[in-house]
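Sample intake sheet
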Amino acid sequence: MRETGYFLARGLTFVQTFGKFKNFALSGQTNPGESVYFTIVLCSFTPFLL
Protein backbone atom coordinates (compact mmCIF):
# COMPACT_ATOMS: atom_id res chain seq x y z
CA MET A 1 0.00 0.00 0.00
CA ARG A 2 2.90 2.32 0.74
CA GLU A 3 4.20 1.83 -2.79
CA THR A 4 0.84 2.92 -4.19
CA GLY A 5 0.92 6.12 -2.13
CA TYR A 6 4.47 6.78 -3.30
CA PHE A 7 3.47 6.27 -6.93
CA LEU A 8 0.44 8.55 -6.58
CA ALA A 9 2.56 11.27 -4.97
CA ARG A 10 5.11 11.09 -7.78
CA GLY A 11 2.34 11.00 -10.36
CA LEU A 12 0.76 14.13 -8.90
CA THR A 13 4.13 15.91 -8.92
CA PHE A 14 4.62 14.88 -12.55
CA VAL A 15 1.20 16.20 -13.56
CA GLN A 16 1.87 19.53 -11.83
CA THR A 17 5.30 19.81 -13.45
CA PHE A 18 3.95 18.89 -16.87
CA GLY A 19 1.17 21.45 -16.52
CA LYS A 20 3.71 24.11 -15.59
CA PHE A 21 5.94 23.17 -18.51
CA LYS A 22 2.97 23.21 -20.91
CA ASN A 23 2.02 26.69 -19.72
CA PHE A 24 5.58 27.91 -20.30
CA ALA A 25 5.66 26.34 -23.76
CA LEU A 26 2.29 27.80 -24.75
CA SER A 27 3.22 31.28 -23.53
CA GLY A 28 6.48 31.09 -25.49
CA GLN A 29 8.47 32.06 -22.40
CA THR A 30 10.09 28.71 -21.72
CA ASN A 31 12.84 29.13 -19.15
CA PRO A 32 15.90 26.91 -19.90
CA GLY A 33 16.02 25.97 -16.22
CA GLU A 34 12.40 24.82 -16.35
CA SER A 35 13.12 22.75 -19.45
CA VAL A 36 16.08 21.03 -17.79
CA TYR A 37 14.05 20.37 -14.64
CA PHE A 38 11.18 18.95 -16.70
CA THR A 39 13.56 16.68 -18.62
CA ILE A 40 15.08 15.36 -15.39
CA VAL A 41 11.63 14.70 -13.92
CA LEU A 42 10.48 13.02 -17.12
CA CYS A 43 13.54 10.74 -17.13
CA SER A 44 12.97 9.83 -13.49
CA PHE A 45 9.39 8.82 -14.31
CA THR A 46 10.17 6.72 -17.38
CA PRO A 47 10.66 3.46 -15.37
CA PHE A 48 7.25 3.97 -13.74
CA LEU A 49 5.47 4.60 -17.04
CA LEU A 50 6.85 1.51 -18.77
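Comment: The chain has a mean pLDDT of 72. The CA atoms of residues 35 and 45 lie 15 Å apart.
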